[in-house]
Amino acid sequence: MSWPLLILAGLFEIGWAIGLEYSDGLSKPVPALGTVVALIISMVLLAQAIKDLPIGTAYAVWTGIGAVGTASLGIILFDEPATLARIGFISVILVGIVGLHFVSGGH
């Protein structure tokens, strides 16, 4: 159950990171509230996941999911550059996440 919790924690990390943009640095109350709620949920889920997973693996996967998702949504939602190099490096992070999952007995 730890891996699904960790993945969900990573998805909420994407939510709060994207929320920072929509909340204009937490200056808009409604998006700021959603951002803070997503942050709390992400942390609680991460805390639950590390009960059964090594902290180094869990933290690397959590931040990796957040990085890949946030960078990808930045391209889609905020018209950030989608260069070949940028997509390539995002893919490298994704490979690292999948690799950690498999070498950590998560399959």
TrEMBL record:
<keyword id="KW-0472">Membrane</keyword>
<dbReference type="InterPro" id="IPR045324">
    <property type="entry name" value="Small_multidrug_res"/>
</dbReference>
<feature type="transmembrane region" description="Helical">
    <location>
        <begin position="84"/>
        <end position="103"/>
    </location>
</feature>
<dbReference type="Pfam" id="PF00893">
    <property type="entry name" value="Multi_Drug_Res"/>
</dbReference>
<dbReference type="GO" id="GO:0055085">
    <property type="term" value="P:transmembrane transport"/>
</dbReference>
<dbReference type="InterPro" id="IPR037185">
    <property type="entry name" value="EmrE-like"/>
</dbReference>
<feature type="transmembrane region" description="Helical">
    <location>
        <begin position="29"/>
        <end position="47"/>
    </location>
</feature>
<feature type="transmembrane region" description="Helical">
    <location>
        <begin position="59"/>
        <end position="78"/>
    </location>
</feature>
<keyword id="KW-1003">Cell membrane</keyword>
<keyword id="KW-0812">Transmembrane</keyword>
<keyword id="KW-1133">Transmembrane helix</keyword>
<keyword id="KW-0813">Transport</keyword>
<dbReference type="InterPro" id="IPR000390">
    <property type="entry name" value="Small_drug/metabolite_transptr"/>
</dbReference>
<protein>
    <submittedName>
        <fullName>DMT family transporter</fullName>
    </submittedName>
</protein>
<dbReference type="GO" id="GO:0005886">
    <property type="term" value="C:plasma membrane"/>
</dbReference>
